[in-house]
Design a protein that fits this description.
alpha+beta, Chitobiase, domain 2, Jelly Rolls, eight-stranded parallel beta barrel, seven-stranded antiparallel beta sheet, binds acetamide
Length: 719
């Protein structure tokens, strides 16, 4: 008898056969447990290939009494079946339960980006990383090889690029690393990359072409494609400090935000970059070549007569279109060599391919890496232009921080939000390790693991076979493998997260907790005090909150609450569940939060940022009316706003609250003014509050967008 093993629930099924939890990451698409066990060592593996075309890497692994069989259409499938078998042997030893695994990747692009420019890593470390990618059935290693801070790839025609460009005196970021890790020897700068040159201390390194060819061979054997990124026309100070004549003003300087880019109006720039690409293509046989094209500061182009003349000649209205001219020329060159180009999503801003005036648009065959998560509607715009898309939105896919919830990577749903008619353009996703603060390989490992495993499963396993609880259990086992590889993975990833819902019927808030530990000891208090071993135990049942409380919850480890703790003020205030009418324009489509329910759902936007799903975004002023359902006394009101000036999010100049008993006639408003300076960097939250002594049913709230850009608002709290 065969039993369909429900991995998604990790259930023990009846029918006389005890279903087993197979500890494989990523979770195979389908596992059917058979009868008895099989001696894995005595059995001979036999391979056949299937005739039907299937996804690259698809395989069927049959473990039965007489044989272990791998059926697959390609070599990657053999490797993935063997990886699965290895993980099964690690779990069961030589007595593996009979089973059939039918498996195939959900997405073709399952990647990791390493930034070798900001800090350099050995070839040996890159090979280890390839081994680990292969173990989890990942198949792309994107190497960010050039940037302002270092040129890491030998170019024989221009040897100075590495002779000088690969070395720097310690910069500000290096000094921060040196200071931050003074007490953490395991994260200190790698002494192998620090040299003396006369009286100068230099830091850096580069890969010879021979080394990179060896790396490509190593990766190819493991079905990992290495995608080199040669960033242009911006992020090129390693070039411009040697060849300042290539910028629009002939200077190699730092602009307002980014370095001066190469000029798109100089023919010698194309010749130079194409000569470099010729050598890059000779080293890397990859289908894809990444040319960056992100964060190009165009101030120098605006000062250049050559750039203006080129714009006039081509009929461009914007400097973004001029950037497209550059990218399209490089794209055309790469296509003439039989390769596909990838660039970051900033590069699509030059024009609309489908519009009548399509000058300035990128060729639709350009592959786009989506990273600017704060810009609304980018993925949809990318696919509507016909571009294949690779998802690497900064939140949650940029992983440089010392730890962060795996949950967000595991459950990121941007891929699914692309309309069905464009799904064929979704290539997959990757996490990116930008390395300004990634001082050495140990620090890199700390950021990459275990987050890479969450991504591996997200991109490999079909949605219907993925399950967070099951993943957490298997992750506990996989961590033993990580340790055995001498990987010091992030322990801070086991943070506590909370899910809050509102129960209108019983007028209560419900709070449940989750973490990346399979079976954590969670304790909590409701009075704002730090949990101890004497505090209430969270027993996987939602906490029902009816009174105002200050919840503090923590995972206990060795008797102590683990940081970061969860802290939230919860209150079933008078407007929870109240109907909200938008009298002016509604929210921005990309930041709709819980739509009409956002402001009265009892959840307050957090200081995690405007992308936390709780904040609602507006590009104008807005006005709403809250209906409390009946007239009642009101003593105080507040509404919360968020500022984050980097992406252009500001506080409203003021927020006005006015009252009405009939919904028609309102008294003069009470006004709360902005007190947050508009040059405070980072995420900042302000409650705009007023006191009153009124009796009212309707409350009109008007937020005045006086600084342009976005305003982000949440909960209207009425007491
Ligand atoms: C990027 O993070 N600048 C692609």
């Amino acid at each position: 008898m065969k039993t369909l093993f429900s991995l998604t629930l990790g259930l023990t099924l009846a029918m006389g056969v005890k279903a087993q939890q197979v500890n494989v990451i990523p979770q195979p698409a389908e596992v059917v447990i058979g009868k008895g066990t099989v001696d894995a060592d005595k059995t001979i593996c036999s391979y056949q290939t299937t005739a039907t075309p299937v996804k690259e890497g698809a395989y069927t692994l049959t473990i039965s009494k007489n044989s272990i069989t791998i059926e697959t259409g390609d070599d990657a499938g053999v490797q993935y079946a063997e990886e699965t078998l290895k993980q099964l042997k690690a779990q069961y030893g030589n007595a593996i339960p009979a089973m059939t695994i039918k498996d195939a990747p959900q997405y073709e692009w399952r990647g990791l980006m390493l930034d070798c420019s900001r800090h350099f890593y050995t070839l040996e470390y890159l090979k280890q990383t390839i081994d680990r990618l292969a173990h989890f059935k990942m198949n792309r290693l994107h190497l960010h090889l050039t940037d302002d801070q270092g040129w890491r790839i030998e170019i024989k025609r221009y040897p100075q690029l590495t002779q000088q460009g690969a070395w720097r005196e310690f910069n500000q970021q290096d000094s921060i690393c040196i200071k931050d890790y003074a007490d953490r020897p395991e994260f200190q700068l790698d002494p192998r990359f620090i040299i003396k040159n006369g009286d100068k201390t230099l830091y850096g390194g580069f890969y010879t072409q021979e080394e990179l060819r060896e790396l490509v061979r190593y990766a190819t054997e493991r079905h990992v494609e290495i995608i080199p990124e040669i960033d242009m026309p911006g992020h090129t100070q390693a070039i411009s400090s040697l060849y300042p004549q290539f910028t629009a003003t002939g200077e190699a300087k730092w602009g307002t935000v980014f370095s001066y880019p190469l000029s798109p109006a100089k023919e010698e720039v194309y010749t130079f970059m194409q000569n470099i690409l010729d050598e890059v293509l000779d080293i890397f046989p990859s289908q894809y070549i990444h040319i960056g094209a992100d964060e190009v500061e165009k101030e120098t182009w605006k000062k250049s007569d050559e750039c203006k003349a080129l714009m006039e000649r081509e009929g461009y209205q914007t400097y973004e279109a001029l950037q497209s001219y550059f990218v399209n020329r490089i794209h055309k060159y790469l296509r003439s060599k039989g390769r596909e180009m990838i660039c970051w999503d900033d590069a699509i801003e030059g024009g609309d391919y489908k519009a009548s005036d399509n000058s300035g648009a990128l060729e639709s065959s350009a592959n786009i890496m989506y990273w600017r998560y704060w810009v609304g509607g980018v993925p949809q715009h990318v696919v509507e232009q016909g571009h294949p898309i690779i998802f690497t939105p900064g939140d949650p896919m940029y992983i440089a921080s010392l730890g962060g919830p795996l949950y967000n990577i595991y459950n990121y749903d941007g891929y699914d939000k692309i309309a069905p008619e464009y799904q064929h353009l979704v290539r997959g996703g990757q996490v990116c390790l930008w390395a300004e603060g990634i001082s050495n390989y140990r620090r890199a490992d700390y950021s990459i693991y275990p987050r890479l495993l969450a991504l591996a499963e997200r991109l490999w396993t079909p949605n219907e076979s993925r399950n967070w609880l099951s993943f957490k259990k298997r992750l506990d086992v996989a961590k033993q493998w990580l340790s055995a590889q001498d990987i010091q993975y992030a322990k801070t990833d086991a943070v506590l997260s909370a899910i809050q819902t509102t129960d209108l019927q019983h007028q209560q808030m419900l709070l449940t907790f989750d973490s990346e530990f399979a079976d954590p000891d969670i304790r909590y208090t409701l009075d704002g005090s730090t949990p101890t071993m004497n505090s209430s135990i969270y027993n996987n049942k939602a906490l029902a909150i009816t009174k105002p409380v200050d919840v503090v919850a923590a995972i206990m480890e060795n008797g102590q609450p683990k940081e970061p703790m969860f802290r939230r003020h919860l209150e079933y205030h008078k407007a929870v569940g109240a109907k909200v009418e938008y009298t002016t324009r509604r929210w921005h489509e990309s930041y709709k939060a819980a739509e009409m329910a956002t402001f009265t759902d009892g959840k307050r936007g957090t200081d995690r940022g405007f992308g936390d799903g709780l904040w609602q975004g507006f590009t104008s002023s807005f006005e709403v009316v809250v209906d409390l359902g009946k007239e009642m006394p009101v003593e105080s009101l507040s509404m919360r706003f968020l500022q984050d000036i980097g992406p252009g999010v500001f506080m409203p100049g003021s927020v006005e609250f006015s009252f009405s008993t009939d919904g028609t006639t309102y008294g003069s408003p009470l006004v709360a003014n902005n007190t947050t300076p508009n040059d405070v960097k980072g995420v900042f939250v302000q409650d705009f509050a007023v006191q009153t002594n009124s009796s009212t049913r309707y409350i009109k709230v008007k937020a005045n967008n006086t600084q342009g850009g976005f305003i982000f608002a949440d909960e209207i709290v009425v007491k």
